[in-house]
Specification:
The radius of gyration is 46 Å and the shape is rod-shaped. The chain has helices at about 1-15, 25-30, 30-45, 55-70, 85-95, 105-115, 120-195, 200-235, 235-240, 255-260, 265-285, 295-305, 315-325, 410-420; strands spanning about 310-315, 330-335, 340-345, 355-360, 365-370, 380-385, 430-440, 445-450, 455-460, 470-480. A 5-stranded antiparallel β-sheet has the order 1-8-4-10-2. The longest helix is centred in the N-terminal third of the chain and has 73 residues, at about 120-195. About 25% of the residues are buried. By secondary structure, it is α+β, with helices and mostly antiparallel strands. Residues about 1-20, about 245-250, about 260-270, about 280-305 and about 390-420 have low confidence and may be disordered. It is about 50% helix and about 15% strand.
Length: about 475
């Protein structure tokens, strides 16, 4: 026991001398507490396996461990020992010999003693440190990559916001310019509709201006499509040799702003009317089987020049739906998803103008108006339902081709005769208002159009874009004497 005591004294002195040694972080690369936990874990896992210590060395390590965990030896806190508990007395004696050294000094003594007695301890700590450094490097790289990704995403979002802001600014500038041009005209109309009621006049002016803006953009879009189609037909071979040339058929706001003459209202309106007439002239087709001898020049002029339709909205949607629902039931239709409903309205010999009103529940609907140049076989209004565009006569590309000459005969006439000699001839159809979606669940959409001649109006209510929603349509059609 005396030799054990002297050995403990020498180890205690070595532990006390560690105050002047470098810190654990400088020597081992770990904070003292973390280094001590690694050393104690290594000791527990490898004692009696990878390392073999003498009885005396184990007592020293255990003494450092108790001093680090509980502080200096205190008889009142020490567990009671049995008469034959020799190992317990030896451990208490080595713990007592450590004196008043601090817990940090005890941790350092445990690490240094384990390093002296076991050659495998230092490589183990070095491996753990390298693994920790590599993990930190990976985490740093990951953090940098995430930071770069966030910056790229923020930059992309900022660019999108800037582009959206520019587009919205251009849209507002265009709409403001159109509103200035049409304000006086719409004001006079609103004063006639609601005399002495400035609030209703303001609402109507706003509705007319908004509808005029949509019509202007739609006409510009159709004009660009026709121009691009003609350009593609003329330079098809050049485009094949130079695939980089690309005609964009979409209407953008800069082009719209460039096409808007801000200083000349009358010239602008005349140009729009002329362009609309030319577009509709290109969409008129000759009836198959009817030649120039059967269709004279006077009749040709009668139905080619079509005036634009007038469209506006009004807010009394609930009252309108109640009135239509209280009728005989013909004015309420459920349009299935993927379907298109065509309401055929023949011209009336006593009328000169058609009027229409419609609204829906909860969702929008596509709407457009066409005119079929054929003598009505009945005076009744009829409703036809088709799946998508399976029998859309008025959207036949061959039939509406602008490259066909009405006076010299239709190319579709020849093709139809070859493909189906027994097929019934199709009446020519003009587009008055192309189909596009209307938010008619908030307001009643109202419109009128002067008869261009004798024929049948085709009111198209298009729900072909909807995959699962049915639409409830409320409509009313009548004519003016």
């Amino acid at each position: 026991m005396a030799s054990g005591t002297s050995g403990t004294n020498s180890s205690s002195g070595a532990a006390q001398s560690t105050d002047k040694a470098p810190s654990s972080a400088e020597k081992w690369g770990f904070p003292l507490i973390e280094l001590y936990r690694l050393a104690f874990t290594f000791y527990k896992r490898n004692s009696g396996k990878a390392i073999h210590l003498s009885y005396e060395d184990n007592l020293k390590l255990i003494a450092f461990k108790q001093q680090a965990a509980l502080g200096p030896f205190n008889t009142s806190r020490a567990p009671a020992l049995g008469v034959l508990d020799v190992i317990g007395r030896d451990r208490q004696q080595h713990w007592q010999l450590l004196g008043e050294i601090t817990r940090e000094q005890a941790m350092e003594g445990f690490v240094d003693l384990l390093d002296t007695m076991c050659s495998a301890f230092r490589p183990y700590i070095e491996a753990v440190r390298q693994d920790r450094d590599e993990t930190l490097r990976k985490e740093l790289r990951l953090m940098e990559q995430e930071k770069e990704a966030r910056e790229r995403q923020e930059n992309a979002q900022q660019e999108l916001l800037e582009e959206g802001y520019k587009e919205e600014l251009q849209r507002r500038q265009l709409q403001d310019a159109l509103n200035k041009q049409t304000y006086q005209q719409f004001k006079l109309y609103a004063e006639k509709q609601f005399p002495g009621n400035p609030e209703q006049q303001a609402v109507l002016i706003h509705q007319l201006q908004r509808e005029h803006y949509h019509q202007y953009m739609q006409q510009l879009h159709l004009q660009n499509q026709n121009q691009n189609q003609n350009t593609e037909d003329k330079s098809h071979q050049e485009e094949e040799n130079a695939p980089g040339n690309n005609n964009n058929s979409s209407t953008d706001l800069p082009n719209a702003m460039e096409g808007l003459k801000l200083g000349d209202v009358e010239t602008q309106q005349q140009q729009q009317q002329q362009q609309l007439a030319e577009e509709q002239h290109g969409h008129v087709e000759q009836t198959e089987g009817v030649g120039q001898d059967q269709l004279g020049e006077e009749e040709y002029d009668d139905y080619v020049m079509i005036c634009p339709a007038k469209i506006w909205t009004r807010p009394d949607i609930e009252q309108f739906k109640t009135e239509v629902s209280a009728g005989d039931g013909d004015g309420v239709i459920t349009i299935g998803h993927g379907d298109t409903v065509t309401v055929r309205v023949p011209t009336n010999m006593n009328g000169k103008c058609i009027f229409w009103e419609f609204a829906t529940d909860s969702y929008d609907i596509g709407f457009g108006i066409y005119f079929e140049w054929a003598k009505p076989v009945t005076n009744e209004v009829t409703v036809h339902v088709s799946d998508s565009d399976e029998d859309e006569d008025c959207v036949d590309e061959d039939y509406l081709s602008t490259t066909e000459d009405l006076e010299s005969g239709s190319l579709s006439q020849e093709r139809g005769a070859v493909n189906n000699p027994t097929a019934a001839p199709k009446a020519p159809i003009s587009i008055i208002v192309p189909i596009y979606r209307r938010e008619c669940y908030n307001e009643v959409y109202v419109g009128s159009h002067s008869y261009p001649g004798e024929g049948v109006y085709l009111l198209k209510f298009d729900n072909s874009y909807s995959i699962w929603r049915n639409k409830t349509l409320y409509y009313r059609v009548y004519y003016e004497r």
